[in-house]
Design goal:
N-(1-d-carboxylethyl)-l-norvaline Dehydrogenase, domain 2, 13 strands, 3 domains, alpha/beta, 5-stranded parallel beta sheet, Rossmann fold
Length: 437
Amino acid sequence: MSQIEKKRMSAEEIKICVIGLGYVGLPLARLFATKYNTMGYDLNQKRVDALMSGHDSLHEVPDDLLQEAVDKYGLICTTDEEKVRSCNFYIVAVPTPVDENNHPDLTPLSMASEMVGRVICRGDYVVYESTVYPGMTEGVCLPIVERVSGLRLNEDFYAGYSPERINPGDREHTVDQIKKVTSGSTPKAASVIDSVYRSVVQAGTHCAPSIRVAEAAKIIENTQRDINIAFMNELAKIFNAMDIDTNDVLDAAASKWNFIRMKPGLVGGHCISVDPYYLIQEAQVYGVLPRIMTNARHLNDGMGEYVVNQLIRLMNKRGIVVKDAHILLLGFTFKENCSDIRNTKVADVYHTLSDYTNHVTICDTHVNSEDVAGEYGIQVCTSGLETMRGCFDAVMLCVAHDEFLTLDVRSFLKDPDKGVVYDTKSVLPRDRVDGRL
């Protein structure tokens, strides 16, 4: 039994290292720094330098809080692996993406596990926060740590899983305000890990009975939302074909106390549109074909093409020649009021429209245009929207950023009476749009 398990370590004895300083890792490192000696490790030197100067380009941690964490609480961010060897509580918060065939890409997770294996010592802890399928932490990640370190799980070091619940761009449900699920590789390890998280998470914790349960709980959170949104998207397709406003239907149905209100839309991002594939693939290993999840993914992945077809149908009705038409897309991020462009379905909208016209303009002040160009090969305007009034045959609201909600969207049309405005978010005044999802 390690010294950590023999007694509760004091805050001074616990030294935390958060591996991966993105949307998940940075808010977590900032929070832990208020109570513990904390380091953040990332491979991106430019990212680390910016964080140490007190600026988060992802805008997940306000600059004043980040500066406080660095100056007052001593948060250190580094790319130097040697510097984190003094830590004894490692938290892995790296992405778990899928490849072009929607198969889990474990490269970041494997690399992080190898890094942990090189620095972990006897009595240390490693906790994974990355979203995985049930069994991956103990079946894939920890064997890598054991192989590289030469140490044995539950004899020399201990492990746990505490799934991230970060909601990018959400200033209300921050990491300390969301109940944290925890788990450990032994009952006492689970208790230690739970106490560390509980000491900084105001919303409290839920200690799951096993790592596999914690992994499963996380992955169904996002899968459930994916399925529910897919149902709304299917309803939207049905009611649009019937010439019934889907939102009117949802308003009426929501008058019943137990109706679950959700909205149709484009499903992007790194969680809802990616995580289900991890469970889908692993389910098939056990001989189960997850039809509902698979169909939901297929339906949601096709919504970009669907809204483009709806826009083109409206343009044809107005006598607008789609070939070479000038079209404005408002928003590029995967959701409103954040800078996250991961797996945004606006890219699908753009590429589908580009099959018809070379005059598609995207405007989004929340993104870094260089990041968009590097990731998607698409040019995005981050300023100058006001100068574009009267320039377009059609406008599509793709992302409901606050600044778009007060725009006179029809003023961007060449002919406000003939041009088309399509609202994929159903948030603009109904009398100012010609179609909505």
